[in-house]
Design a protein that fits this description.
Elements lengths: L1 H27 L6 E4 L2 E4 L5 E7 L3 E10 L4 E10 L2 E7 L12 E10 L5 E2 L2 E5 L2 E6 L5 E5 L4 E3 L3 E4 L2
Antiparallel strand pairs: 1-9, 1-13, 2-7, 3-6, 3-9, 4-5, 4-7, 7-8, 10-11, 11-12
């Protein structure tokens, strides 16, 4: 009986390792695709537009997305209008309020809106960046290394953009 339990434990361990390996290979296929992950830091490359998201707990009206630079100065503001509860996507084209492309660097997204009671609410900000590589974590989970320098666990992804 004890021998059978030991054999079953060995088999289960081997099966878990195979499942983790298959998961890792599936995640590796995501290289080049862009996950949206909670956070407000935007590593702008000076050229390409950036997919952003707002995850609202409640329907909101008068939602404003504000992009600031590293010093906290407002670069641009966009009126997103009304948003339903849940995830909404929008694009920042890398331009300031005057229509000029900003320099490559770190920028930050702030979101604010009004709920049905006209109280201020701040949806959770999401920033998408392409997956550059996938690493196997210590417990077998896939770790996604993004082009903007972030390293995230695959379970942190809210939405895949492309």
């Amino acid at each position: 009986m004890v021998s059978s339990m030991g054999n079953m434990n060995t088999s289960m361990t081997a099966m878990l390792a195979q499942m983790q390996s298959v998961n890792f290979m599936n995640q590796a296929a995501l290289i080049g695709h862009s996950p949206a992950v909670a956070g407000n830091g935007i590593a702008f490359d000076g050229t390409n537009q950036v997919m952003l998201g707002a995850n609202a707990a409640n329907p909101l009206k008068s939602v404003i997305a504000t992009i600031t630079d590293a010093s906290g100065s407002t670069v641009n503001s966009v009126d997103l209008g009304s948003l339903n509860a849940g995830m909404s996507n929008f694009v920042w084209n890398g331009k300031d309020a005057g229509g000029n492309t900003v320099a490559a660097g770190m920028y930050y997204l702030g979101l604010s809106g009004k709920n049905a009671a006209d109280a201020n609410e701040n949806p959770t900000a999401y920033v998408a960046s392409a997956v550059a590589s996938v690493t196997k974590g210590s417990n077998g989970d896939a770790i996604l290394n993004l082009l903007d320098g972030r390293t995230i666990n695959s379970s942190e992804v809210q939405q895949w953009i492309s």
